Amino acid sequence: MTLTGLAVRNLGRNKFRVVLTVAGVAIAIIAFLLLRTVIWAWAAGAEYAAKDRVVTRHKVTFIMSLPKRYVEDVRSAPHIRLATWANWFGGKDAKHENEFFSTLAVDPESYFVVYDEMKVPPDQLETWKHDKQGAIVGDVLARKMGWKVGDKIILQSGIFAGDWQFNVDSVYEATAKSVDRSTLVFHWDYLNDSLPQRRKDQVGWIVSRVDNPAQVADVGVSLDKLFDERETPTLSQDERSFNASFLAMFSSILKAMDIVSAVILVIMTLILGNTIAMGARERTGEYGVLRAIGFLPGHVAMWVVAESLVMGLMGGVVGVGLAWPFINFGVGRFVEENMGGFFPYFRLEVPNMLLGLGLAALLGAAASAVPAWRASKLNVVDSVRRVA
Amino acid sequence: MIPIRYNVRSLAVRKATTVATAGGIALVVFVLASSLMLSAGIKKTMGSSGRADNAIVLRMGSDAELGSVVDESSVPLILAAPGVKKDERGQPIGSAEIVVVGAMDKLGTTGVTNVSIRGVGDEVMRFRPEIRVVSGRPPKPGTDEAMVGARIRGRIKGLDLDQTFDIKKNRPVKVVGIFEADGEAYESEVWVDRELLRQAYGREGVESSVRVRLDSASKFDAFRAGVENDKRLGLMALRESAFYEKQSEGAALFVGVLGTVVSIFFAVGAMIGAMITMYAAVANRQREIGTLRALGFSRRSILASFLFEAVFLAAVGGAIGAAASMGMGLVRFSMINFASWSEIVFSFDPTLRVIATALIFACGMGLLGGLFPAVRAARTSPLKAIRG
Predict the structure, then answer these.
(1) How large is the ipTM?
(2) B interface mutation test: which of A22, A60, A164 has the most B CBs within 10 A?
(3) Is the per-residue pLDDT at A388 higher than 70?
(4) A348 Cβ partners below 8 Å, 6+ apart?
(5) Strands B206-207 and B70-71, how do they pair?
(6) Quick check: helix, strand or coil at residue A127?
(7) Is residue A20 less than 8 Å (CB to CB) from chain B?
(8) Cβ contact, residue pair B270, A267, below 8 Å
(9) Rounded CA gap, A296 and A298, in Å?
């Protein structure tokens, strides 16, 4: 029997306790991974943002818009390849009062060129371009609301009065993880033509693509400089910073989740440490005998650490094994359908799984530090004499 | 009955295990109590913000003041509606306000956040006597001066006494006062002159909302009928208390769901921890249990004794966790309110109910974790146990 073999065999001595401990570690790992996935999915919008896109909006507030002629100014600025615009419509379906989804009035010619990670079948895209009341909806939204291509739907708006009728012309799909699959887009002209003169020809924000992603920040700065002399100053950010600044609004929640996930790990370490300490105490006599026949303090410490490490790892494997279907087929589906605006992609990713496994093993080893140190410091004569 | 001292001393003998188990339960209770306190804090802030004998008038279909537009010409009609309370000079008590959000730099983290800015007229102080300026002085009407709510003060760049922020390009506004409002949501807002905001945000001829005091809470239906019957106005009236309750729904639900899910995982983990500890306690004390049985203690009193020990252990942990969570009462938690898209600062509200819930929860974990080990202890055969 090898030294490691002995440590592993020790696990079999109190099977029930090991099962309970592994279950405790697994539960902690599942909770930890769930929280990590929330944090990760929240940040995914910034992580997977297009590197060559710049968003230009009103400098002071998101509730005010920019003059439409700014679009042409952006288009003729240096390094800009493409530009489009959109207005927030704030639509909701009277039949589904509590379902939140984004509704945007967009430029039909350029919107899907700038957002080329939103895929629309070409023939349906053509139909939509010629249908002023046409709308294109995300696949998740279409499934949730039961909308099919060809349906006529009526929406109200939190901003613009009245009933708005749309024809569902197409359903878009996403080819990037940052795309919200619950958005409805429709013709900007449809909105603009029905507004009073005072509110006409305004755009919510302008999105452009630059020819060199490395210069994206400089392009933003020069756009803002261009408009700074005009009546409406702007704030331009690359898409990553734009999404990141959105995250900053939720920084307290993210910090709280970070703290809670650390607390989970501490509890897990306490459970593991407790089990290991109990096992080591029960075996005080044996360790005395082993020391007496010539094994070194380091050997004893190694057995204790190895046993804990293996237990932690077992808990980690079970935890990750259960968390994967739980998140990817249970919670994740639900979240993507109901909170797609925040979490367009809510899945347990490989790096997080590895993190869970690694932490389980590492904390397993850490939990055994005190018992291992104590066991190695045992006085041989005392421990052999002691009755457990 | 086996003396309680026996259990307490048994716990004291196994110090490390007792500390680990109680520590785990303390952490669980701490997190549970904190999330309950935050939920209570959100409800308190939003709940106290509305009075049942106040009504708020918004554009039909708007969920929040932000998207609402009320024509200036409708204001006298609203104030003249049935049920509106008059002051000693016979003037209706009400307040027409403009609400916008401004993007401002958050201190202590990178990124901007949205701050609610409320434009008010002279009549607001009569409508809201609970507003108290606690430092500085109230802004002079008709000037570029502002007062800032006590909760948001110092969290945002420019929002502190004698500092300035830009409400529009080259239009700095000076903060001359800090106000408190009995913990209401207004404490997270910036208040400026209504006409200043009207110019800066292009709100000529319109207000966001109109609030009125009613003769009594029961007059609401008459008032509502008066406002809503004139379909041309396109307005709706809500009880102010109901309005704020709806505003807090999203945030309270979010914290509640997250807190509950995390607590359930934590509870299972801590229960397993207690179970491991109690099984080990029973196994180590076989001989003692056998002796107690031989002395004539019944199975039932052995069961009760070990159950008590488990509950006591959990209660100690729970008390430590609950005591520590009281410290959270000093922490301020800011998050985006989903209804108004602006930052709102909540406190953790340590109510008696929260503490009681957390302690009952801890005892429940002890009871469940200790049940099976206690049953095993009670089933011990005295003869076998003493023989070893």
Answers:
(1) 0.79
(2) A60
(3) no
(4) A33, A37, A323, A324, A327, A328, A332
(5) antiparallel
(6) helix
(7) yes
(8) yes
(9) 5
